[in-house]
Specification:
Elements (H helix, E strand, L loop, with lengths): L4 E2 L2 E8 L8 E2 L13 E6 L9 E2 L1 H4 L10 H10 L18
Parallel strand pairs: 3-5
Antiparallel strand pairs: 1-2, 2-4
Length: about 100
């Protein structure tokens, strides 16, 4: 689940690895499979991270490869970017009169 922006910008997640460190990757999705086995996860505003030290997780970006299959985050981001009418759907809350 992607978190909402706070006063200091979007909230991101830093996973503590089994060795006890954070690494240099932040996660924009709290449900990211890459942090599922983390020892612990802390939340921080993205604006407090140094751009030179951290990069966004490839799974959260939707650019990670799963042997040719798009990641769930890539699929979600693609679906969020689409206009429902462009794919033959009615916008939410509207009733299809042909039913």
């Amino acid at each position: 689940m992607t978190e909402q922006a706070g006063e200091d910008g979007p909230i991101v997640f830093l996973a503590v690895t089994t060795s006890g460190g954070y690494g240099n990757v932040y996660h924009s999705d709290s449900g990211c499979r890459a942090i599922a086995n983390a020892r612990s996860v802390s939340e921080k505003p993205l604006s407090l991270l140094d751009d030179d030290d951290y990069r966004e997780c490839q799974v959260c970006q939707g650019t990670a490869s799963d042997g040719g299959c798009p990641s769930p985050n890539a699929t979600r981001k693609l679906l969020e970017s689409l206009n429902p009418e462009d794919v033959g759907l009615s916008p939410l809350g509207e009733v299809d009169s042909d039913v």
